[in-house]
């Protein structure tokens, strides 16, 4: 369905959601730059893993 770029779409989606959660979802006491970066990287990796494999044409 996503073709040759499905893993790219997964990493971009995870990164965008990670940034949104790290900016809006983490309490102010925990919102250090390190925590925001970690949340973004972890969600990007999870979404990349969850999206289907790229299809070779």
Q: What attributes characterize this protein structure?
A:
mainly alpha, 2 helices, 57 residues, 65% helix, single chain
List the helices and strands and how they pair.
Layout: H1 6-24, H2 33-50
Task: Describe this structure as you would to a colleague.
The protein is an all-alpha fold and 57 residues long. Helices cover 65% and strands 0% of the residues. It has helices spanning 6-24, 33-50. It is elongated and about 50 Å long. The two termini are 13 Å apart.
Q: How would you sum up this structure in a few lines?
A:
With 57 residues, this protein is mainly alpha-helical.
What's the β-strand tally?
0
User: What's the order of the H and E elements?
Assistant: HH
Helix proportion:
55-70%
- Bin the strand percentage: under 5%
Question: What is the count of helical runs?
Answer: 2
Terminal CA distance: 13 Å
Helix and strand content put the structural class at mainly alpha
Specify Rg, calculated over alpha carbons.
13 Å
Main beta sheet: none
Mean pLDDT: 88
């Amino acid at each position: 369905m996503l073709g040759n770029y499905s893993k790219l779409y997964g990493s971009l989606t995870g990164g965008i959601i990670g940034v949104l959660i790290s900016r809006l979802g983490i309490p102010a006491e925990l919102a250090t730059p390190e925590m925001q970066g970690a949340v973004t990287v972890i969600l990007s990796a999870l979404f990349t893993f969850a999206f289907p494999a790229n299809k070779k044409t």
